Amino acid sequence: MAVGRFRVLSRSPDGLARLQARQQQRHGLKLGQMWKLFEHQPVNDSFGDSALFVDFRDERRGLLIDLGDIRALPPRKLLRLSHIFVTHTHMDHFSGFDRWLAVVLARKARVTLYGGPNFIAQVEHKP
Q1: Which pTM does this prediction carry?
Q2: How far is CA 120 from CA 7, 61, 68, 72, 92, in A?
Q3: Fewest beta carbons less than 10 Å away: which of 59, 78, 101, 110?
């Protein structure tokens, strides 16, 4: 069924069972286990700067929520980022911007950055 520009897909119970069986066979899972579409992990401990890495396993891409201290992320994960969401530009949520930029500059074609009001101006004025 089409709704505007979107297609709404529904699966019958039999279709879902077949999908689950394919995923279990493909990924070597036990009966009843499902393949996770994404994994998420905080980059730092609860007292560190804010950063959450979300890895979309089958798509070979990731997203990052906040750019706090990201030294714990290896360059291969930084290069997988397709989207970065910055909640606000306080130091504990934005201090990793320079490290991220140094790793991806001239190596990655496109990354989409999302931020609040005046985010573009704050990125442009970063020393």
Answers
A1: 0.69
A2: 33, 24, 18, 26, 18
A3: 110
